[in-house]
Write the structure tokens for this entry.
Amino acid sequence: MFRPSDPRLKGSPDKKQIARRDDSSLSLCKAVEDQMGLRIRRLPSTSDLARKLEKLFGKDNTELMTGTQADETGFKNRNLSEYRYLVMATHGILDSRVSEIMEPALILSQVGGAGNDGFLTMNEVMDLKLGADIAALTACETGRGEHLSGEGVMGLGRAFQYAGAKSVLVSLWSVSEESSVKLTEKFFFHIKDGKNKAAALRLARQEIRKRGYDHPFFWAPFVLHGEWQ
């Protein structure tokens, strides 16, 4: 939820709140667009992914945060150590090109509690307490970051591992929304079916290739960091 013009906000009191943020000269979304040339647009297929995963794992075992609910306050206020799988399907910022942020971040809803800017930064992720077996980060280039001597690549994927995730599914370059959603869905289908993580990713890649996404641009960017079994 990034714009006051979003039709889902029609008649909602949240519209005034997001409008104030969008009109502000200090708006981080505006800074991202101005400094990175990135259009922060709605990702409708991510809601489809959420519903499909809910159907796969069962409504009683799944909690969805979409639209205005996908905000930084709501996310941080949950007991994240209780979640076995985390799927963060949204836009991301790779590096320090945005002067107001200066670190990788995931862009969450711009409608949220006071004191939160709607950007979940790498340092904020490292402060989380996770218990996830898998965290899937479907945004562009979540597997990249700054190379630190003696530490390796430090980015969002590494931050989720630091916070407690055993494995992190990340991307190495800018990705297609449609193919990323399909690959993530198939990956978790095979996880639910009992396959280990490496096998689940291999099978998911094979299946989306058969569905018309044969070019490596679509299936090759996603890799696993951490445990693969």
Remarks:
- The domain at 41-226 is CATH 3.40.50.1460 (Rossmann fold).
- The chain has one domain: 41-226.
